[in-house]
């Protein structure tokens, strides 16, 4: 799922971690879930800053409002990563109008919807298909690759803090480093 953020100065990342019993390496019983999960987890990756589309050398997908507005866009990506281990654009997706929910009312991915289990269908945008402002497979592929004509990149680590409900959260509006910067701009003007 892609989310086109109307507030590019904020990053709110929520990771839900379910305690899983690990399968045994040999015959026997599964291991018990971890009793005391860590207070924090650190996610490390690469962040890229793109020139917006109206500037010389700007990327055609950035600072473009999708035809259906900002929001969650589904089914624009292949369900399996490409050979380079990166997302692959396919297009023909839709904007999520309302959230799909399981029989207990919890949010679920639209791909997991199963009416036989009592799940509640969400809705999609009025447009039959919507690429969410992405111009092409080629323009999307450059989101995940360094290209000095479009972007700069650097490694970034984010610390997520465990919440009482067991999820882990990073919020740039409350993180001291990003709060001091006035938003999530980890490599602005790099």
3D architecture notes:
With 190 residues, the chain is mainly beta. Helices cover 6% and strands 24% of the residues. The protein is built from two helices and eight strands; from the N terminus they run ββββββαββα. The protein has a four-stranded antiparallel beta sheet with strand order 1-4-5-6, with no helix packed on it. Strands 2-8-7-3 form a four-stranded antiparallel beta sheet, with no helix packed on it. The protein is globular and about 50 Å long. The relative contact order is 0.25.
| Main β-sheet description | 4 strands, antiparallel
Which stretches are poorly predicted, pLDDT < 50 over at least 5 residues?
Answer: 19-26
Instruction: Name the helicity range.
Output: under 10%
Radius of gyration: 19 Å
Q: How many strand segments? A: 8
Note the gap between the termini.
28 Å
The portion of residues forming beta strands comes to 15-25%
Mean pLDDT, rounded to whole units?
80
Question: Which structural category do the helix and sheet elements fall into?
Answer: mainly beta
Spatial arrangement of strands, main beta sheet: 1-4-5-6
Q: What does the overall shape look like?
A: globular
Order of helices and strands: EEEEEEHEEH
Q: How many H/I helices?
A: 2
